[in-house]
Automatic annotation (TrEMBL):
<dbReference type="InterPro" id="IPR000760">
    <property type="entry name" value="Inositol_monophosphatase-like"/>
</dbReference>
<feature type="binding site">
    <location>
        <position position="70"/>
    </location>
    <ligand>
        <name>Mg(2+)</name>
    </ligand>
</feature>
<feature type="binding site">
    <location>
        <position position="92"/>
    </location>
    <ligand>
        <name>Mg(2+)</name>
    </ligand>
</feature>
<keyword id="KW-0460">Magnesium</keyword>
<keyword id="KW-0479">Metal-binding</keyword>
<dbReference type="Pfam" id="PF00459">
    <property type="entry name" value="Inositol_P"/>
</dbReference>
<feature type="binding site">
    <location>
        <position position="217"/>
    </location>
    <ligand>
        <name>Mg(2+)</name>
    </ligand>
</feature>
<feature type="binding site">
    <location>
        <position position="94"/>
    </location>
    <ligand>
        <name>Mg(2+)</name>
    </ligand>
</feature>
<dbReference type="GO" id="GO:0008934">
    <property type="term" value="F:inositol monophosphate 1-phosphatase activity"/>
</dbReference>
<protein>
    <recommendedName>
        <fullName>Myo-inositol-1(Or 4)-monophosphatase</fullName>
    </recommendedName>
</protein>
<dbReference type="GO" id="GO:0006020">
    <property type="term" value="P:inositol metabolic process"/>
</dbReference>
<feature type="binding site">
    <location>
        <position position="95"/>
    </location>
    <ligand>
        <name>Mg(2+)</name>
    </ligand>
</feature>
<dbReference type="GO" id="GO:0046872">
    <property type="term" value="F:metal ion binding"/>
</dbReference>
<dbReference type="GO" id="GO:0007165">
    <property type="term" value="P:signal transduction"/>
</dbReference>
Amino acid sequence: MTNNLYTDELRFAQDVARKAGAIMLRHFRTGIGHERKADGTPVTKVDRNVNQFMPMEVKRQRPGEGMLGEEDARHAWGAQQANAVPRRWVCDPIDGTWLYAAGVPNNISSMALLEHRQPVLGVLYDPYTNSMVHAVVDGGAFLNGKPIRVNTSDSISGSCLTLPGGRVDTLDAGALFKEVVDQGADVVTFGSVIYDASLVALGFASAHVYPYTSPWDMAAIKVIVEEAGGRITDLNGNDQPYDRPINGAIVTNGSIHEKIVKLVRGHIRK
């Protein structure tokens, strides 16, 4: 049962995520292009529209609480600022921007609530299937109101893993891919890291490796996967805050976590 301490916050996050999804759908396959941000990653006009909508809703409905979004990272970094607000909403309006711009319907809108740098609530919304995944700390994880659990696989062999498919500077992803395949794993990637990681919470995948630094990609995933019975750490197997750049993430069903951490450590670029 969902933790009643966060009933209002959950209702707010789900409502904002659904409305963000509606904006996403309204512009989907309308010929909208994309441009590159300073770090080389793509951003569309819809990203910015949704990311303007999300903080506006936080300011209007949750005054006094902070906001951190992918297209608004200038508000994020710096310990002094991070400590100034004990509660902070973290969002990714459209995960999988390349897919969205190409007209491929595999994008997630996510939102998480941080308290003292740790996620306590997370929602993921897929507007194409009207699917809502949510979790609240100590309250379980759910897909459209039905409980979800990670799988129980304790072996890399025979497990499905989701690995990064793009350029990776921090990790030798090619060598990692080869090693897990050699150990008998099935490896997939769908272009949306949030979608890929959510497959662990849903029980379809046993692990996801996220070698990037963006907290908005993993904040909602953290509470959702943990409430589904899984585990998430940084690339070295340590806990970390989510109000600043993260040291990647290893997301697993818990049973194979240490095995994946050991594999990843062997392929981190020095």
